[in-house]
Specification:
Blueprint (H helix, E strand, L loop, with lengths): L1 H19 L5 E4 L5 E6 L5 E8 L13 H8 L12 H7 L3 E6 L4 E8 L3 H13 L5 H20 L6 H9 L13 H6 L2 H11 L5 E7 L3 H12 L22 E7 L6 E9 L4 H14 L5 H9 L3 E10 L3 E10 L5 H17 L4 H18 L3 H15 L4 H11 L2 H11 L5 E8 L7
Parallel strand pairs: 2-6, 7-11
Antiparallel strand pairs: 1-2, 3-5, 3-6, 4-5, 8-10, 8-11, 9-10
Helix pairs in contact: 4-9, 10-16, 11-12, 12-16
């Protein structure tokens, strides 16, 4: 009886939290095509102003990779009315902080200010869009910054080139085949005119969404948004190519040598559908079941019970056009990559053959319910989610309804999706090993 009461209390708490955290918002378009989303939250005297642009690494040319990430840095250099080097000073002097990040699919900029500085934030983001200064000194400065970032985070980091090794083999025609940070020789070879053309093509109001979230007056915000963003000229619609990868029908194996690692890692990688599909969400659940936490099936089996791996896990890397499902392991001394793959395959076959237990299924539901609550727990998280669901998913209401999709996934679907995508003839096996001669691939 006590357990029943506790379960009921937990259910009520979860249900109450998700209901209480339903996100309300207003949205509209300016005449220049900029989509505007307003989310009011008076729980704290802060306001987040963010702009997400529909441009990422996949919008680059094969011989000019790294442009989108480069612009993440370059567009902090200064504008017509914000002198070079003054951007961050202006933000901190007014009690704020800001940042930006880039993926294969989009670039995201945001400021967090005390709520009385909304006008400043809107003006700064409109300046970034209307009056960026893209000159040679800025390009040269940020080129060195990006090179240092690549050295620290990729080239000199153990297993830092895993995504490069995986992507260039999993994609043959799609731009997902290169990394977001790109190749430094491409940035070195690019002319100032190429950078200016990239900005003119993608950093336009009709290729972006502006989100204001936090404590503010809506009518005042709308007035300032019209004043600062309204005059920005609409750009030509961005034409996007469609790239179709041929299905993987036969397992293939490849090797990558890394001078920064002492222990080999093996990865099994499967190409998966767009993050907008139901199947991608089922794969999220499969990933959680297999490797989310130390009680997951793969970790418990390979690391705890059989002591075959130093580390093991899996994750579903969902993106706008395609995704990748990756399973990895670092063999213990005396064990091989093939030993791990054999054990991993046994666990996958179990998911493909038998329904997961009701207990494990409920555990998954609880995890995704908790993730949903946490994602809407901060104004910063809500602002990012609103922009993402609008720009990449094409359905902003998913901020409130996507959890219903996860709730509706059945044990039978988990089995069927595992059978559909996680087969040996649909994957690459990557042996990521210490470099024999201490040189990079």
């Amino acid at each position: 009886m006590k357990k029943s009461l506790m379960a009921l209390s937990t259910a009520l708490l979860i249900g109450g939290s998700t209901y209480a955290q339903k996100v309300t918002f207003d949205e509209y378009d300016l005449d220049n095509g900029l989509h505007v989303v307003l989310h009011q939250d008076n729980s704290a005297p802060v306001v987040i102003t963010s702009v997400m642009y529909h441009v990422g690494a996949k919008d680059e040319q094969p011989n000019r990779t790294g442009f989108a990430h480069f612009f993440e840095h370059l567009l902090f250099e200064g504008t017509k009315n914000i002198e070079r080097g003054e951007w961050f000073k202006l933000v901190t002097a007014n009690g704020g902080n800001n940042n930006a990040n880039t993926t294969d699919d989009r670039t995201y900029y945001y400021e967090v200010f005390p709520s009385n500085n909304l006008e400043l934030a809107l003006w700064m983001e409109s300046e970034r869009l209307m009056h960026p200064v893209i000159n040679q000194i800025g390009v040269d400065t940020q080129n060195e910054v990006v090179k240092e970032e690549k050295r620290l985070r990729v080239d000199n980091q153990p297993y830092g080139n895993i995504f490069k090794a995986v992507k260039q083999n999993m994609f043959k025609v799609h731009p997902y085949r290169w990394t977001t940070i790109g190749e430094m020789e491409h940035l070195d070879a690019a002319t100032l005119e190429e950078f200016q053309a990239f900005n003119k093509k993608f950093y336009i109001p009709n290729n972006a969404v502006l989100v204001v979230a936090g404590q503010f007056d809506k009518e005042t915000a709308k007035k300032w948004i019209k004043e600062y963003f309204g005059p920005i000229q609409k750009g030509p619609a961005v034409e996007r190519k469609t790239y179709t990868e041929e299905p993987i029908t036969k397992e293939f194996r490849t090797t990558w040598e890394d001078p920064n690692v002492q222990l080999p890692m093996v990865l099994a990688t499967y190409r998966t559908p767009s993050m907008k599909t139901r199947d991608a969400r089922v794969l999220d659940m499969i990933s959680s079941y297999l490797s989310d936490g130390k009680s997951s099936k793969l970790y418990k089996k390979l690391v705890d019970d059989k002591k075959m791996a130093l580390q093991a896990g899996a994750f579903n890397n969902s993106q706008e056009d395609y995704g990748m499902y990756l399973i990895y392991g670092i063999p213990m001394q005396g064990k091989t990559s093939d030993d791990l793959i054999k054990e991993i395959d046994e666990e996958i076959v179990k998911v493909q053959t038998d329904l997961i237990s009701e207990k494990d299924y409920q555990k998954l539901q609880n995890k995704f319910e908790n993730q949903y609550v946490n994602s809407n727990a901060s104004v910063e998280g809500i602002a990012s989610s609103l922009a993402t669901y609008y720009l990449l998913y094409g359905d902003i209401n998913l901020i409130n309804t996507e959890i219903d999709i996860y709730r509706s996934i059945t044990r039978e679907e988990i089995r069927e999706v595992a059978k559909k995508y996680l087969n040996p003839n649909q994957r690459m096996i990557l042996d990521y090993i210490p470099a024999k001669d201490k040189t990079q691939n």
